[in-house]
Amino acid sequence: MKSQIKRTFSNFFFEYETPRQVLVRNKRVAVVCRIIQMGVLAYIIGWVFMYEKGYQIVDIAISSIFTKMKGVSFTNISEKERIWDAADYVFPEQGDSSFVVMTNYIATVGQKQDKCPELPDGKNKCTSDAHCDEGKYKRMGNGHMTGRCINDTSTCEIYSWCPVEDDRKIPDPPVLLTAENYTLFIKNSITFRQFNVVRSNLVESVNQSYINTCLYHPKTDPLCPIFRLGDIVERSGFSFSEIARVGGAIGVLIDWDCNLDLSIRHCKPKYEFYGLYGTGKNEDKEEKPSLGYNFRYAKYYVENGVEKRTLMKVFGVRIDIIVHGRAGKFDIIPTLTAIGSGVGIFGVATVVCDMLLLYLVSKRDFYKNMKFKHTEIGEEKPALPQSKTERDLPKVTYH
After folding, report:
1. Which of the listed residues 6, 245, 367, 380 has the most CB atoms within 10 Å of its CB?
2. Entry pTM
3. Of 153, 218, 226, residue with least CA distance to 188
4. Is 296 labeled as ligand-binding?
5. 381 belongs to an annotated ligand binding site
């Protein structure tokens, strides 16, 4: 028993097993095998290593955005001249990554809290006081009903900010159509914590003198951080005159794709522009609901001891700046993982060729006999036990 255990351990530690291989001389199968292997090799080298850079460890950027709008517009509405600058047309004013540039508006001047009839827009009709429940508010209304139906307008009397805003007619052309000449300055910084790398879109070639004169263009000035608002809208697929009238939303993507195995100077941003809100008509050539982008804000003041306000319904271009940052650097662990997975994929060629040899070629039975070794173990018949009489009989030897 002791020698058997010793022999088992000895065989386990000091013997090596290798699978049996059969060399098959078949041109068609060999060509198929080599084509598959070359395809796998091209996938590993071309896609995994060169395109996807499977030999690198990857980190995602942390970013910050600072923006500043510049530009001046002049309007003359009802013989009232006015100058509009960034403090008037940018909301909010903190220079965030998401903001609105006003291009059109509807102003309701001199509103005060009082009783007045609803807007006769067909949404709040009434023919008697019974249609105006006192103290209640309709979803499409502008204030709380007093219980009276005003015959002159066929609408309910309400307690609200009066006079009620009339936004049925949007100014066309837009009031601030010259907004297309406004300029946007974007300052973006990113950090790759894993590699201790900090970059800004004001790269080495972007200095103060260059910023003072440049304007972004994808071919001539791809690194300039100053953008014309009209160009942003046009490159996102919209017409500025259309989007300025009812508003819309534009996405500015700053894409950082950095290979840190190269010099840090090659880590530069790329700018892309996308329309985020659809405008116009749908596939059935019907006008889409809730077209454009707008919001309201009010400027409050006191006149003769009465609180009043000027209500502004603002139509504008909403800019959302999105940063996508990715950096990669060589590391041994992902390299070995990519190589190991590639070696495993090479086994596909063996599986396919074995299927051809064992099931499709004309000499498949011959290949089966060469590949597989069949062993049959015969059953041993147990010997019958001898009886006592047979054991006592003398043994006879024949010569």
Report:
1. 245
2. 0.76
3. 226
4. yes
5. no
